[in-house]
Amino acid sequence: MQQLTIAIVPTLAAPPEGAQLVIFCDPRGYVAEIDSSMMLAAAARYAIRHKVYLVPERFIAANYLCLCLLSPQGVVIGAQRAVHLNLSLREHNYYRDDAIRPFDTPLGRVALLVDVDVNMPQVARAAVEAGATLLLSSQFIQLYDLYEDRVRYGAINAAVSNGVNVAAAAGMGGIIVRCDGRELAGFSEELPVMAALDPSRCHADRDAIAAGRRLLTRHRPLLADRPAAEGGRLDV
C-alpha cells in the first residue's frame, strides 16, 4: 500500500470519501464494560458498511482500559490495554498492562496508544523498537484541560522522536503527523480531520536505537555519578 488515507471522525459519523482507516473521536472517557459488546458490534457493522479499518472508542474489558483495530470485515485484528492511566481513572482501580504490543496488518505494523500512553515517550519508543511503523492514538481529555499544544506536541514528539507515522484523536479533535514530524493535518476540532501518508515510510533506524540504548546503559554510571566540573553531579 503506497498511500493510506486516514480520517478522524465523530463516533459513527460517515467517513469522508476515500478514507481507508477511520479513528472515532468521542467526548466521553470510555465505554463501560457492560456496554462494550454493544459498542463493538456497532463498530463492526460500521467497518463492514463503509469498508474501512476502524479504531472505535476506548472501552473497558476485564477491568482494563482498551483500544482495538477492526478490519473492513468487522474482525478485531489487534488490541491493546492501557499501559498508563489518566489520573481521573485511577480511583476505579483498573488494571494496567505492562507492555505495548504492536501487531502486523496490511497497513504495516501498528501500535495502539491508549489514552495517555501517547504522552509517554517510553511507550512510543518501545512500540517502534518492536517494529511499529504506525502509531494510532485515542485519548480522552477533560474540556478544562484540552488545549491545542498539548495534543499537537504529544503527537509530534511521538512521531519525530521515533521516525514513525502518528494519527491521534483527542477530545473532539485530531491530528495526523508524518514520521518526519510534519503535520499532514494539523490539530483541529472541526471534524473530520483527514490526510494521506505512505505507511511504509518510516525513519526509525531500530539498530541505531538499540545501539544507542546499549551505549547509554553501559556508560550511565559514568554519566550519572561522575562529579561535574563545578563539583556537582551530572544527572541523566
Automatic annotation (TrEMBL):
InterPro entries tied to this protein: C-N_Hydrolase (IPR003010), C-N_Hydrolase_sf (IPR036526)
Domain named CN hydrolase: residues: 63-204
Protein name: CN hydrolase domain-containing protein
The species this protein was found in: Yanshouia hominis
